[in-house]
Design a protein that fits this description.
single chain; about 130 residues; alpha+beta; Spore Coat Polysaccharide Biosynthesis Protein SpsA, Chain A; three-stranded mixed beta sheet; about 30% helix
């Protein structure tokens, strides 16, 4: 994540706490056809089948940022509570680099977007 994303999340964190959320977690929205051992989970086969864009939102925790009061993290023995504010990030920001393919994808996205490839990655003073 770039510093501008951290700044945006932090700026939304305290208002989220005031609204009753107990923490803030970064999420990516997905709209995919999912199955389990019994068949479709989030759509119907046949005439009721809908385009993927019409599926309900599902959320992937990206672990990009997890914010909560320190005392609460200790109490929960976890990084966030049961009522986190969902800070939605885009697919590129959500890339979790776990292996060489993930790294190649992240590098390709950086190389494709000239506005991103020109950013000094660890600068905290610049606005993007």
């Amino acid at each position: 994540m770039f510093p501008k994303t951290y700044r945006k999340e932090i700026s939304e964190y305290f208002p989220a706490l005031e609204k009753g959320f107990d923490s803030l977690v970064s999420f990516e929205i997905i709209k995919r056809y999912l199955w389990d051992e019994n068949g479709p989970v989030n759509y119907e086969l046949g005439l009721k089948h809908v385009p993927s864009q019409q599926l309900p939102n599902l959320y992937i925790v990206t672990d990009g940022i997890l914010l909560a009061p320190r005392k609460k993290m200790i109490e929960w023995s976890y990084f966030h509570g049961k009522n986190p504010y969902r800070f939605i990030i885009d697919k590129r920001t959500a890339v979790d680099i776990d292996d060489g393919l993930d790294l190649a994808v992240a590098r390709a996205w950086l190389d494709m977007d000239e506005s991103v490839s020109q950013i000094v990655p660890y600068s905290v003073d610049e606005e993007y």
